[in-house]
Amino acid sequence: MIMPVTTTRVSPDWPCQVKTPGSYDWERSAARWLRELVPARYGSYPALVRHPVLLARHAQIQVQQEIRVARTALQTARADLPRLGLHESVIEHTIKLYAAELLQLQHIARSVRAVTEALVERGGR
Q1: Residue 25 pLDDT more than 50?
Q2: Are 52 and 30 in contact (CB under 8 A)?
Q3: What angle do CA 9, 124, 63 make, to 5 degrees?
Q4: How does DSSP assign the chain, residue by residue?
Q5: Which of 36, 38, 54, 81 could connect to 42 by a Cys-Cys bridge, CB 3.0–4.6 Å?
Q6: Cα separation of 85 and 82, whole Å?
Q7: For 29-88, how does the pLDDT look when each residue is reduced to its tens digit (9 = 90+)?
Q8: What is the C-alpha separation between 99 and 53, in angstroms, rounded?
Q9: How much is the pLDDT for 11?
Q10: What is the DSSP string of 81-105?
Q11: For residues 21 and 115, is the Cβ–Cβ distance under 8 A?
Q12: Are the C-beta atoms of residues 105 and 63 closer than 8 Å to each other?
């Protein structure tokens, strides 16, 4: 028996690694992507394996924590890095790296929210 595939408009923040909600096996692709965002040991916790919405919640918390770390690193770089004896060009490169990472993490946070909303809409399981 062939199951109908539902087409759903997804947000521009929807991660390309996750199938469209309603498509075959999309929840599994969502869980796989979410597991990449949390420390590896969390991927084996039974509650998080059985309930992707819990995994999504933890991924949201994890990414928010990483955003805080990147902000702190960016905000303190000019004061802290010269004391480590780093050359100015290395400091400038590092500041650009932190700024780019912060933007990337903010995008990931929006993607996790989109996936979480879709998982909740399907019943949270």
Answers
A1: yes
A2: yes
A3: 75
A4: -PPPPPP----TTS-TTSPPTTSTTHHHHHHHHHHTTS-GGGGG-HHHHH-HHHHHHHHHHHHHHHHHHHHHHHHHHHHHTGGGT--HHHHHHHHHHHHHHHHHHHHHHHHHHHHHHHHHHTT--
A5: 38
A6: 5
A7: 999 999 999 999 988 899 998 999 999 999 999 999 999 999 999 999 999 999 999 999
A8: 30
A9: 84
A10: TGGGT--HHHHHHHHHHHHHHHHHH
A11: no
A12: yes
Summarize pLDDT for 79-124 with one digit per residue, the tens. 999 999 999 999 999 999 999 999 999 999 999 999 999 999 987 5
Read off the tokens for 86.
Answer: 């780093």
Type of residue at 28: R
- Asked whether 124 and 27 are in contact (CB, 8 A), the reply is no
Give CA–CA dist 112/69, Å, rounded.
18
Q: What is the pLDDT of residue 125?
A: 54
Cα dihedral 58/49/117/69 (nearest 10): 20
Half-sphere CA count of 28, side-chain side, radius 13 A? 3
Extract the tokens encoding 10.
Answer: 């997804």
Residue found under tokens 């597991």 = 35
The mean per-residue pLDDT over the stretch 6-19 comes to: 80
